[in-house]
Amino acid sequence: MITSTNTFAQWGAVTALKGNQEPSRAMVGEFQKRRDYVYEAINKIPGFRCPKPDGAFYLFPSIKETGMDGFRMAEMLLEKAGVATVAGECFGKKGAGHIRISYSNSLDNLRAAVEKIESVMSEI
């Protein structure tokens, strides 16, 4: 059990918080661009429905309208499109019929991944 943060880590946090925050702000802006792109693009794919995420760098779209479970969808996207996702079932019962998509990659790679997903989904 961990009961408290050590002094060394606390002083490191103070130094980081007092330092230049612009790189962090720039990265937040970059992740917002990536999120907005993937969110809009994924919701245009028939059978995919996704709320806009407020935190982290993942989308968790429902794929229930496709008739597939998360495991089958994740496997298909990996095999046919080369796009790695995680079955929602890995996150518990309420994750059934979903997949998790990370948008922590470059915008160019995300565009390529979405195009591949669209291509695979247009074939089924």
UniProtKB/TrEMBL annotation:
Cited CDD domains: AAT_like (cd00609)
Keyword terms of this UniProt record: Aminotransferase, Pyridoxal phosphate, Transferase
Residue stretches making up the Aminotransferase class I/classII large domain: 6-117
Any one GO MF annotation of this record: transaminase activity
Matches recorded under SUPFAM superfamilies: PLP-dependent transferases
GO BP term, pick one: amino acid metabolic process
Pfam family, one: Aminotran_1_2
The protein's required cofactors: pyridoxal 5'-phosphate
Homology family: Belongs to the class-I pyridoxal-phosphate-dependent aminotransferase family.
Protein name per Swiss-Prot or TrEMBL: Aminotransferase class I/classII large domain-containing protein
Taxonomic source organism: marine sediment metagenome
